[in-house]
């Protein structure tokens, strides 16, 4: 039996975590033994991990997201030293390279200078394939014994500032780099052109059966009871998702004479900012934060339009999930938007500018013919892609050659 190890950070609610569940639900467990190492055994989606998966014990990696004062209490001095060193050198590097304050260097350096203090994972086992599904990618390549190593890209590298030299050293150690879309690949290679030969395309795995089973677990119509147009957005409350501009966009729509309520599912650091914007535009009766939901599918089923208003994305899993549930989807024209959907065929792309975004949403609401065309297309097409797991089997097969 072939052995696979997958490493990720935790099972908080998020698109990448749902993609991980999709992957875990697609394996042939009669022929593949799958171990899962999570830095932390927490998150609302932890209990959704398939029972066939062997969840490995935690180790010092749990301290990567722990407040530094807690490291002192728990006497994790080596990890504290590594994180402080990483923070100091990252700030120095950011200043030298004149990078934006919103950058990924601090996270990269934190991982770079702490992985040496993390125990080896299952040191007595050599895996056929070790997969680093999400950062920190340093752990998989340096703390696992495997015949082949693969890391996954889940972000748009054209939108973030990084220390290219440092990250190149990390990525170079992998045999394969899995990309979830052509646009993600192009953005990644614009920073790391020398890694082109390592790139393989593996889409986020989403299965229709799993989504439909959960979509009918309960009826969200009561929570979203409304006679007007019900709009829905899902994601982490972060700069990338652009939820702080939802109130402004919604105000334009309402001022144009449309009766709408816009529901937001998720959590994150920008929640207070979003609430402040709701209050600023006096939209307490029109924009609603529903918070964390470990099962978002009944809400997608209950909405009229699913909207992804992001500033940037790798590839939004929720967009594909909404399409599987035959919902009209509207996304903004973020850099990778055209790899997310086919404009006018299985959804529509509108401008990112708030006013033009609102106008695009209104135009789509008014175009009933286009909506029917898109819904008919969605109903006739199967967006499940469990077959993507075959690409992983092929990589493991190469080990035998």
Automatic annotation (TrEMBL):
The name on file for this protein is N-acetylgalactosamine-N,N'-diacetylbacillosaminyl-diphospho-undecaprenol 4-alpha-N-acetylgalactosaminyltransferase
Gene3D superfamilies named in the record = Glycogen Phosphorylase B (3.40.50.2000)
Source organism: Thomasclavelia cocleata
Q: Which CDD domains match?
A: GT4_GT28_WabH-like
Q: Which GO terms describe its molecular function?
A: glycosyltransferase activity
SUPFAM superfamilies assigned to the protein according to its UniProt record, in alphabetical order: UDP-Glycosyltransferase/glycogen phosphorylase
Q: What is its EC number?
A: 2.4.1.291
- Sequence ranges assigned to domain Glycosyl transferase family in this UniProt record: 230-377
Q: Which UniProt keywords apply?
A: Glycosyltransferase, Transferase
Q: What InterPro entries does its record include? A: Glyco_trans_1
Q: Which domain of life is it from?
A: Bacteria
């Amino acid at each position: 039996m072939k052995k696979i190890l997958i490493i990720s950070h935790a099972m908080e609610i998020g698109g990448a975590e749902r993609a991980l569940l999709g992957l875990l639900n697609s394996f042939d467990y009669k022929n593949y033994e799958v171990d899962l190492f999570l830095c932390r055994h927490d998150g609302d989606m932890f209990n959704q991990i398939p029972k066939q998966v062997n969840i490995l014990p935690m180790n010092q990696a749990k301290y990567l997201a722990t407040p530094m004062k807690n490291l002192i209490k728990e006497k994790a001095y080596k990890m504290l030293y590594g994180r402080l060193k990483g923070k100091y050198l990252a700030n120095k590097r950011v200043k030298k390279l004149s990078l934006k304050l919103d950058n990924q260097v601090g996270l990269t350096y934190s991982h770079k200078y702490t992985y040496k203090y993390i125990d080896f994972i299952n040191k007595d086992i050599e895996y056929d394939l070790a997969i680093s599904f999400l950062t920190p990618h340093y752990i998989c390549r340096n703390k696992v014994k495997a015949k082949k190593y693969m890391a996954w890209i889940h972000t748009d590298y054209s939108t973030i500032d990084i220390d290219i030299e440092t990250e190149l050293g990390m990525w170079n150690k992998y045999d394969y780099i899995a990309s979830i879309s052509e646009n993600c690949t192009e953005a990644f290679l614009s920073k790391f052109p020398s890694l082109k030969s390592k790139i393989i395309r593996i889409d986020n795995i989403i299965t229709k059966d799993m989504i439909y089973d959960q979509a009918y677990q309960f009826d969200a119509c009561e929570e979203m009871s409304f006679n007007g147009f019900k709009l829905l957005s899902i994601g982490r409350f972060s700069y990338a998702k652009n939820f702080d501009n939802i109130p402004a966009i919604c105000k334009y729509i309402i001022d144009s004479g449309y009766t709408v309520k816009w529901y937001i599912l998720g959590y994150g650091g920008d929640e207070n900012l979003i609430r402040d914007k709701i209050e600023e535009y006096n939209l307490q009766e029109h924009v609603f934060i529903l918070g964390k939901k470990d099962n978002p599918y009944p809400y997608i089923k209950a909405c009229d339009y699913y909207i992804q208003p992001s500033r940037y994305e790798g590839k939004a899993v929720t967009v594909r999930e909404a399409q599987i549930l035959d919902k009209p989807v509207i996304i903004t024209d973020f850099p990778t938007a055209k790899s997310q959907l086919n404009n006018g065929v299985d959804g529509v792309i509108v401008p990112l500018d708030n006013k033009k975004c609102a106008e695009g949403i209104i135009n789509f609401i008014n175009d009933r013919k286009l909506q029917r065309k898109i819904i008919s297309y969605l109903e006739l097409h199967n967006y499940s892609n469990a077959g993507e797991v075959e690409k992983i089997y092929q990589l493991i097969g190469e080990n035998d050659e």
